[in-house]
Design brief:
- The chain is mainly beta.
- It has a four-stranded antiparallel β-sheet with strand order 1-2-3-4, with helices on one face.
- Strand 2 and strand 3 form a beta hairpin.
């Protein structure tokens, strides 16, 4: 008997201050990456899919983004730009 399946992993990549497209507030947004891996006998072997998203901590709105957008937001977070001002609008509500 062979036991196989998938398992999801959620990674928080950064926290940024952005202008929310849904509620319009400049609020903290978490940038996250969800990786689904194929498992064999409960051992994760290789990634099947990778998805990126931002979520507003004020209203809870979540928006899927591309890998390129996620990379840009990570560079923005690492560059030390002031967190008090909204820097980008990753989505339009």
């Amino acid at each position: 008997m062979i036991i196989f399946g998938t398992k999801g992993y959620l990674y928080q990549l950064a926290i940024l201050t952005l202008l929310c497209g849904r509620c319009g507030n400049p609020a903290a947004h978490t940038l996250s990456k969800r990786v689904t891996k194929f498992t064999l006998f409960f051992v994760p072997l290789f990634p099947v899919s990778t998805k990126y998203a931002t979520q507003c901590t004020f209203c809870g709105a979540q928006q899927k983004i591309t890998k390129e957008q996620a990379d840009q937001l990570q560079v923005q977070a690492a560059s030390g730009q002031p967190q008090g001002q909204p820097q980008q609008q990753p989505y339009q509500g």
